[in-house]
Structure formats: structure tokens, C-alpha cells
Amino acid sequence: MTKKKTYPTETYDITIESINERGNGYARITHPPTRGHMGAGLQVFVPQVAPGDKVRVSVPNAKGRRRARLFDYELLQAGPNRDPEFEFRPDFSGGTPLIAMSYKAQLDYKQQMIEEYLDKVSVSSELVRPIIGMEQPIHYRNKMELTFGVDGSLGMHAQGNYKKVVDLKDSVLATKDMMTAKYIVQRWWLDSNLSAYNKETKEGLLRHLILRQSHQTKELMVGIVANGMPENYEALVQDLSVRLEAELPVLASLLWIENTSISERSYETTTHIISGNDHINEAFCDFTFRIWHDTFFQPNPVQAEKMVSIVEDLIKDKKYNQVVDLYCGIGTFSLPLAKQAEQLTGIEIVESSIESAKRNAKDNGITNAHFICSEARRGLEALKEQWGSPDLLVLDPPRSGAGGKMMRSIGRYQPGAIIYISCNPKELANDLVWLEDFGYEVTYVQPVDQFPHTVHSECIVMIEKKAND
Ligand SMILES: C[S@@+](CC[C@H](N)C(=O)[O-])C[C@H]1O[C@@H](n2cnc3c(N)ncnc32)[C@H](O)[C@@H]1O
């Protein structure tokens, strides 16, 4: 019999100094330990805390280390940045790392992080306007993607552990209808004895549950992503459909999405409509949008409308001949931008998003917008052949940023002005560096909190030609 290893544990009382990029509280132990030999200099990272919280941490085997592994912790005294309503949750999924902080403290944390990243690339904090938060920062997400866990859980991966799925019991992010759908699907799954897909063995059936809900029309999409089709498919999905329809009159699209590839993010899926449409309809700004299960749509429509109106304000008194919307998705920014343009070209890599953008333009009577399905840099290079420098280039890249090659290509293209919409201030800063050599400077930064309770934030950045260039 192997004996379980036990480590000596030291206990320290600490005060959380700050929150790191992953949303964990940071403290450095500055006083002697309660039982012995460690002490000053040891760094600890603690989840679900706010700056100023006093916490007792247990740290195993920390001798000789600079960074402690956290064994256990308890809150001794709440600090001024803690949300007084929040209670510690042992089933924490990691989807909302800032949840213990008051909303004001979350906004301050994001503002400071954005200013620090931009300061590193010489963008003065004086150009950064105060972050725009939400009045009601809960149940704001219009899309949730949950994982079927092999132990019957249906939820998100545990923080730092991609093998473990934490059952989603109560969500501050999902809408109430999404949570109702989650419970119905979970009950149906367990009643039907269907297996969950195991990423390691590549066996098992059910992979993900996609939930999407329109903010304005309330239409709900439920999509089961599976590694194939079960033998008794018809009876199973009929049962699921009856259960969902009995409780959710807003159900507008019920889908079975086959993904038999190894990749979780495969574009080669086959969609079977169980009931309703293959898309839901959203009313957004003055437009209507069709949203399919795999199309990117801004996840927080309340804040996304504010972002569109910020962009509209930046361009409102101008008339542009040619506008490029890079990484255009389904045209969320393209449609309002087209109102100020003679011609607009949207470029996007996902074919279904481009089809959707074309259809959205048509549905909304917009005739001067054209959409190209292409990798962004290739699409831009092809456009250069047709157009001279455009008056305005808007880019809204994924979280990984646009990258140096893309930014240099934009710089060489010499658009009259650039609006960069970013969901990652670190990558934004890395990307902005490249434009300086091409004669551009940042003139305005507006942060928007698109993702309350998470570490993410959005920025709209105006970049113009330097006056002497
Ligand atoms: C942050 S989203 C923005 C979408 C759109 N602007 C909107 O507001 O809905 C980024 C988009 O870039 C697309 N994308 C990702 N990598 C790309 C690439 N290399 N080339 C072109 N588009 C890409 C994604 O499919 C996604 O639609």
C-alpha cells in the first residue's frame, strides 16, 4: 500500500495587495510564519478575494520557494473593495474570477490595467477616458458554451484544470432562460444514459452545450454538440424537444451539431435542425441580425450597443469614400459604418459569418457594403490591388490580437485613420507599437466593460496620422 505523502503546512495571515492578470489576489508575506522557518518574501496568489481583504492562508512545503502553492484559505476580514453580498464558493468554476470584488473595484482594476499596458508603449493615460461600466452587471451574456463532463457535470472547466468540469449551478453571466435550458438538458442527458465525450480517449458522445439568447427578441437557441449521432437519435431528440418546449416558449432553434473531429473548434460540423430555425434573430442598434450557432456576435449586447455608438460618434461628422472593416464577423460594426461611407468592405475568415453579414446587410437595406471571406492579411493585400488607401480602416481582431505582420501591412496601406476595437489591452499595446513607424499616433482611448466579473475588457482606440507626417 502506498502511503499518502503529507507536507508540513505553514499558516500566514496576509492582506491582499492587488489582483493579477488572471483575477487572483496577490500578497507577499512580510512577517514571520506562525510555526517556523519560512516568512518574508514568499508570494501567494489567492482566488475569490479583493484588494484589502485579510486572509489566513495555509501553504504546504514552501521552504526555499519564492511562490507558495495555496493549500487552503479563509477570509478573516473583508476589505473595502469586497462585494459585501459575495460568499465564498468552493465550486468556483473560474469563469468569473473577479466575482468577490465590488463592481466599482472591478472597474478600477480594469482601468488601471489598461492604462499600465498602454503606458508601456508610450500612450499617455491622459488619453484614456474613464471606463464605461454596466448599470446591471449580471445575466448579460448572450452566449454560453458548457462542457459535458464525464462525471455528469455540465459547466465550465475548473480554473487551471482542463480535465475537470465544474457543474454550473447558478450563473451571474447566463440569462435565466439559459439556466433553465441547462437544467433540462442535463436531466435529459442523465435520464438517457448518453455518454460524455472524453477528450483524452476521444470516445463518448456529448461534447458541448451551446446556449444563445437574443437580448431584444429573447429568442433562445439550444445546440447539442456531439461526436456523431446516437442509434436512437429520433426518439432521443424528440424527448429533448418536448421537455424544452414545455418550459421555454422562447425556444426558437434546437440543434444537433455533429463534430467528429479531434479539434473542439472545428469549422467542419454538420448541423441537424431538431426544431425551429437554424438561427435566432437579434435586434441590435437600428438593425436586425441573424445569428447562427457558430457566428461570433458581441457577447454583451448592452455594452456592444454602447461601443457602436462610440464608434458612430467618432465618425459622425465625416463622410468616407472607402472604409475597411477587418475581422468584421457578421457585420456588427460594418452596417453602422456603411451609413457614413461611399463603399465599405468587410473581411472575415469564417464563411458562415460572411454569409450572415451579406444577409444582414440585405435585410437592413444596405447596398454599399461588400464582404470578403478571407484571412485578414490576405484579404487586405487583395483589396490593396483594387483600392488606393482607404479613408478609414476599422479592425476588431480576436483576443490574440492582430500581430506584427498584420499591423505592418496596415501601416503600409496608409489608411487616413484607424479605429482599433480590442478585447485584450495587452495585445492591443503590442499591436499599437508597429504603427508609430508608419506615422500614426493614438489620439483617443475609450475602455468599455463588456465582461463584468471577468478579467477582460474592451477598448476603442482612435489612431490618426501625426500632424507633421
Ligand atoms: C472579436 S471578433 C469581432 C467580430 C465583429 N467585428 C463583431 O463586432 O461582431 C473577431 C472576428 O475575427 C474573425 N477572425 C479570427 N481570425 C481571423 C483571421 N485570421 N482573419 C480574418 N478574420 C479572423 C473571427 O471569426 C471573429 O469573427
UniProtKB/TrEMBL annotation:
Residues noted as binding S-adenosyl-L-methionine in the record, renumbered to the chain: Q298, Y327, E348, D396
GO molecular function, one term: rRNA (uridine-C5-)-methyltransferase activity
Keywords of this entry: Methyltransferase, S-adenosyl-L-methionine, Transferase
Residues of the TRAM domain: 5-72
One Pfam family here: tRNA_U5-meth_tr
GO biological process, one term: rRNA base methylation
Residues of the active site: C423, C423 (nucleophile)
Family according to the record: Belongs to the class I-like SAM-binding methyltransferase superfamily. RNA M5U methyltransferase family.
Name of the protein described by the UniProt record: 23S rRNA (Uracil(1939)-C(5))-methyltransferase RlmD
The organism of origin for this protein: Dolosicoccus paucivorans
Taxon lineage: Bacteria, Bacillati, Bacillota, Bacilli, Lactobacillales
